Amino acid sequence: MDTERLSVKKDKDIIIPRALFATTKNNFEEDIKKLENLYSHEVIVTVLESTKELISNEVCALVSDRYNTKPFLRYNL
To answer: Can you list the alpha helix ranges (DSSP code H) found in the chain?
Structure first.
């Protein structure tokens, strides 16, 4: 994917999940702050709730805790 051709507005469904794909509890704060400079909390949550990307349940829990939203999971065990 040519990152030079990505649009922050049009490609949020790609950018947000991929920015958090490899995040962990240790680097979550740094990673989420970068996204918050580009997107609202509501947009971040909405995109993550509907993405088909392989976002871990840990990341979903960190996001819902940060924004005090209803917990959501990508994978049910």
So the answer is: 12-20, 28-36, 41-50, 57-67
pTM of the model: 0.88
8 A C-beta contact, residue 47 and residue 65: no
Structure tokens at 5: 């051709």
CA distance to 6, 20, 37, 44, 76, per residue, from 33 (Å): 19, 11, 6, 11, 27
Q: Which residue has tokens 């005090």?
A: 68
How distant, in Å, are the alpha carbons of 1, 51, 52 from that of 72?
28, 12, 14
Question: What is the mean predicted confidence (pLDDT) over 33-45?
Answer: 96
For 21, phi then psi, to 5°, come to -55, -50
Over residues 50-76, mean pLDDT? 91
